[in-house]
Amino acid sequence: xxxxxxxxxxxxxxxxxxxxxxxxxxxxxxxxxxxxxxxxxxxxxxxxxxxxxxxxxxxxxxxxxxxxxxxxxxxxxxxxxxxxxxxxxxxxxxxxxxxxxxxxxxxxxxxxxxxxxxxxxxxxxxxxxxxxxxxxxxxxxxxxxxxxxxxxxxxxxxxxxxxxxxxxxxxxxx
Length: 174
Prior knowledge:
This protein has six helices and two strands. The protein has a two-stranded antiparallel sheet. The protein is elongated, with a radius of gyration of 53 Å. The N and C termini lie far apart (113 Å). Belongs to the PPP1R35 family. One of its GO terms (molecular function) is phosphatase binding.
């Protein structure tokens, strides 16, 4: 070691001749460590068991072993390289729709129109107000002797009458 300043004469104390506790390691400093050391020394080392345990624990060793076994079994290199990849056949339209949904999710929410209501049921029955026989009317005519009777021709009522009947029905319901 380098000392930048000479030792101070004031601080000098005599060094004790007895070694300190932590100066050198003491063999079997704890009782549990000593018992474990004695048990290990007395037991027989099983190499096969140690290799099996190492293979189970080490990922790199396991991968190397699988690689050498697959070479021995003539497995093509392409299958060895990409064996954990999953092949997906996704339609292009589905991918585009998913991307569109993601982009739309990033947009700020906008006020949306309420969903359309269910179409209204059938309208009121207009035949309540009148007799079905009178839904058509005839124009008055004169009968003359010698002429064949006029053939009656039915004419439908104008559409305004339908709305008039509907309005009348609403008034009666109220």
